[in-house]
Specification:
Blueprint (H helix, E strand, L loop, with lengths): L7 H11 L6 E2 L7 E2 L2 H20 L1 E2 H10 L1 H8 L11 E14 L4 E7 L8 E7 L5 H4 L12 H18 L13 E9 L8 E9 L4
Parallel strand pairs: 3-4, 6-8
Antiparallel strand pairs: 1-2, 4-5, 4-7, 5-6, 7-8
Length: about 210
């Protein structure tokens, strides 16, 4: 090694990826004012932590949703974040595969409805952006806790940053035309009792098949 000075940026990144404690950085001018960059933090942990976590934690949507509607705490312990705040709703990681039976692409908060069990009726609604509602991706992760943040504003911005990154890297690449009848495959998360007619799934990975 040419010098003995520690490489602070690399060490900071290693701490984030292992312990994932979300701490504010110092301001660019060297002052003491904390500066939190949620978009950069999400980008740094997405491939290393977020997607592997969801791949390991997620269960098949029918299995997860059946358990969630009968014993939300058991479903949360198995498929979600058991360390969530006591007053927060349960959020679950899911794998979802089926056929698109309806699509709403006129709104910026575009969605597709997926028939998972083959009965011709929608079982879940999947967000395809560009506007993405809720904070399901953030809230499904057991290594992200509210107490790791300086304040509630940073925590809220971090939730939005997950949605923005998912849209930029995944959702913006999906087709928008003639979606009904196509197959869909999604890895993502949804929050129980989100006020939607159907469970609203936010993808971290998504594929839409070719036109039938």
């Amino acid at each position: 090694m040419l010098n003995n000075k520690p490489n602070w940026p690399i060490l900071a990144l290693m701490v984030c990826l292992t312990a994932c404690k979300i701490l504010p950085t110092k301001s660019a001018d060297g002052g003491n004012a904390p500066v939190f960059n949620p978009d950069k933090t999400v980008e740094e942990i997405w491939a290393a932590k977020v997607v592997p976590y969801l791949q390991q934690k997620a269960g098949p949507f029918p299995e997860v949703h059946t358990l969630a509607t009968t014993d939300a705490a058991a479903a949360g312990a198995k498929y979600g974040n058991p360390n969530k705040q006591a007053n927060a709703p349960w959020t679950f990681a899911v794998r979802l595969e089926g056929k698109i039976v309806a699509a709403n692409t006129q709104s910026r908060a575009a969605t597709v409805d997926i028939d998972v069990d083959g009965d011709g009726k929608a079982d879940a609604r999947v967000q395809i952006g560009p506007a993405v509602r809720g904070t399901a991706l953030r809230d499904s992760l057991d290594f992200i806790q509210f107490n790791d943040f300086t304040n509630q504003i940073d925590f809220a911005q971090f939730g939005k940053a997950f949605n923005s990154y998912a849209d930029k890297t995944v959702l913006s690449k999906l087709p928008r035309e003639a979606l009904e009848g196509r197959s869909a495959k999604v890895l993502g998360a949804y929050t129980l009792g989100s006020g939607q007619d159907l469970p609203l799934v936010t993808p971290a990975e998504a594929e839409i098949g070719s036109k039938p």
